[in-house]
Specification:
11 helices, Rossmann fold, 5-stranded parallel β-sheet, 10 strands, 2 domains, alpha/beta
């Protein structure tokens, strides 16, 4: 049974109706006031945070809760769903980036849609760890990246284009981190091969590059990949960048 942390300004008829409807639909619902302590206490037990924003801009200490929600969305990939009005959404998005929101529902409440959305966003297909393939001819670099990412993602490494193509053809991959400059078959050539194969052409690619000059970056981006990463990136920024990529990708569906 999926658990939802339902936060609101105060308990009233509408919040009780939301809680009751979700419980009837089979969800475990924890209804709590909007504050950092409540969110911190229950965040690890829930698949999603549902925020009923009615009058939220009148809460004196809401800024601390919003800052904490922003950090959870960006750094821990927490799902945040808002129910409310345009003014409240605008107020919240001054702190929590719009791209970090799971979804929004403008009042009046549509319970059938809410239940459908909760089923969607708490499903295993939506919340499971993403599969990342890292391709580089430097074995030491591959080991470092795998160690950095293994707790947040399912990571596979490959040291050649042939290994990468074979793996992608036989496994589900959510993102390819591809060395731009490899011997024999370089990154752009692998990318070209992928685009000609319908079975793997849809896999997003981020190029790994050691060059930070404008000309090199423009050359990389001219291929229109999902992005690029400098090999000098640190662990924290790498994980943050990848999580933000998957957040924006799944919320844009």
């Amino acid at each position: 049974m999926s658990s939802i942390l339902f936060i609101r300004k105060e308990k009233n008829f509408m919040t009780s109706a939301i809680t009751g409807g979700l419980i009837k639909a089979g969800f475990n619902v924890l209804e709590e006031p909007v504050n950092v302590n409540s969110i911190r206490k229950f965040k690890d037990d829930c698949s999603l945070i549902l925020f009923y924003t009615d009058g939220v801009e009148t809460i004196d200490l809401v800024s601390s809760a919003l800052s904490y929600l922003k950090d959870l969305c960006i750094e821990e990939n927490m799902l945040l769903y808002l129910i409310g009005g345009p003014d409240e959404f605008q107020y919240i998005c001054r702190t929590v980036p719009q791209a970090s929101l799971c979804d929004t529902m403008a009042r009046p409440l549509d319970m059938a849609r809410l239940i459908s959305d909760m089923n969607k966003y708490t499903s295993d297909d939506f919340t499971q760890k993403k599969n990342i393939l890292v391709v580089d001819d430097d074995a030491t670099y591959l080991k470092i990246i795998r160690e950095w990412l293994k707790y947040d993602f399912n990571v596979t490494i490959a040291s050649s284009a042939l290994q990468a193509i074979n793996h992608m053809s036989n496994n589900s991959i959510d993102l390819l981190l591809l060395d731009y400059e490899m011997p024999i078959t370089n990154g752009p050539k692998v990318y070209e091969m992928m685009k000609s194969d319908p079975e793997i052409s849809g896999i997003p690619v981020m190029f790994l590059t050691g060059k930070n000059d404008k000309e090199s970056i423009m050359k990389v981006m001219s291929l229109r990949p999902a992005g690029y990463l400098l090999k000098t990136i640190n662990k924290e920024d790498l994980i943050k960048t990848l999580k933000q990529f998957f957040v924006s990708k799944k919320y844009s569906k």
